[in-house]
């Protein structure tokens, strides 16, 4: 039974040593692996708590339903 857990124990020791000897690289790898996991898990959690995305911001100004009047004054001739 101990032989089955030996690879995990050695991996834990290796990661612990790397965290002490080169913490910048170790934590960069940790944060880099958390990102894709969050992409898959956060949206369902947000939907579960009732999050709804906001309405889209209008990209055009609505024109009134009337004929346009010509501009008077301040015109260059």
Q: Describe it for me?
A:
The protein is mainly alpha-helical and 77 residues long. The protein has a domain at 25-51. Helices cover 60% and strands 0% of the residues. It contains 2 helices and no strands. It has helices spanning 2-21, 23-48. Helix 1 (2-21) crosses helix 2. The longest helix has 26 residues, at 23-48. The chain is elongated and about 90 Å long. The mean pLDDT is 87.
Q: Termini, distance in Å?
A: 95 Å
* Global geometry: elongated
Low-confidence stretches: none
- Figure out the total of helices: 2
Fraction of residues in β-strands = under 5%
Q: Give the tally of β-strands.
A: 0
The main β sheet shows up as: none
Oligomer: single chain
Helical residues, percent? 55-70%
Order of helices and strands: HH
Structural class: mainly alpha
Spatial extent as radius of gyration: 30 Å
Mean pLDDT: 87
Q: What layout of secondary structure does this protein have?
A:
Elements: H1 2-21, H2 23-48
Helix pairs in contact: 1-2
Transmembrane segments: 24-42
Organism: Macrolepiota fuliginosa MF-IS2
Protein name: NADH-ubiquinone oxidoreductase 9.5 kDa subunit
């Amino acid at each position: 039974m101990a032989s089955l857990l030996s690879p995990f124990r050695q991996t834990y020791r290796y990661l612990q040593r790397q965290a002490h000897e080169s913490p910048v690289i170790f934590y960069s790898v940790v944060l880099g692996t958390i990102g894709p996991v969050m992409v898959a898990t956060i949206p369902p959690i947000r939907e579960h708590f009732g999050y709804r995305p906001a309405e889209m911001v209008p990209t055009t100004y609505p024109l009134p339903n009337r004929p346009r009047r010509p501009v008077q004054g301040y015109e260059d001739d």
